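can u do me a favor
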């Protein structure tokens, strides 16, 4: 089933690129359109606002914004910010700052890029602040909890 879905998406993208080529679009215009399609698909991986435990407000795009949440016995993963942009309009650097308070259980704020293992940014009560350079492709920042009760505040610019 997954193979059919991938094949369908590949076919759809191929038809779009072929159509744009026939319409006289330049290589840059075709790449911009392809990047837009990839970004829309990548946004679908983010946890929906309805499913979030807290409140998220996006900034300039889905890679930036603020998030504040109070968790009680939380044992899930939330993908808060990110996407799959090949060429992000606002550049590759983002400034991440967050405060995590764990009163029970465990929690990790993470960054995952492509098929690489997630990088743990914070996993104890405390603060994190760093500028991250995003490689091309999928990049997501989120939180994972295991019976986590506590508070998270995040700001990404």
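np, heres the sequence
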């Amino acid at each position: 089933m997954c193979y059919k879905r991938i094949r369908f998406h590949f076919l759809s993208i191929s038809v779009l690129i072929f159509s744009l080529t026939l319409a006289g679009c330049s290589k840059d215009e075709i790449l911009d359109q392809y990047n837009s399609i990839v970004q829309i698909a990548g946004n679908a991986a983010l946890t929906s606002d309805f499913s979030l435990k807290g409140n998220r407000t996006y900034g300039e795009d889905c890679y930036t914004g603020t998030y504040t949440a109070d968790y009680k016995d939380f044992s899930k993963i939330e993908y808060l910010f990110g996407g799959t942009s090949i060429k992000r309009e606002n550049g590759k650097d983002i400034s991440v700052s967050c405060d995590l308070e764990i009163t029970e259980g465990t929690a990790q704020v993470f960054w995952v890029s492509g098929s690489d293992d997630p990088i743990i940014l914070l996993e104890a009560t405390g603060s994190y602040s760093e500028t991250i350079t995003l490689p091309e492709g999928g990049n997501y920042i989120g939180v994972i909890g295991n019976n986590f009760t506590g508070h998270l505040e995040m700001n990404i610019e």
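The beta strands are 55-58, 65-74, 77-83, 93-113, 119-122, 126-133, 139-156. hope that helps!!
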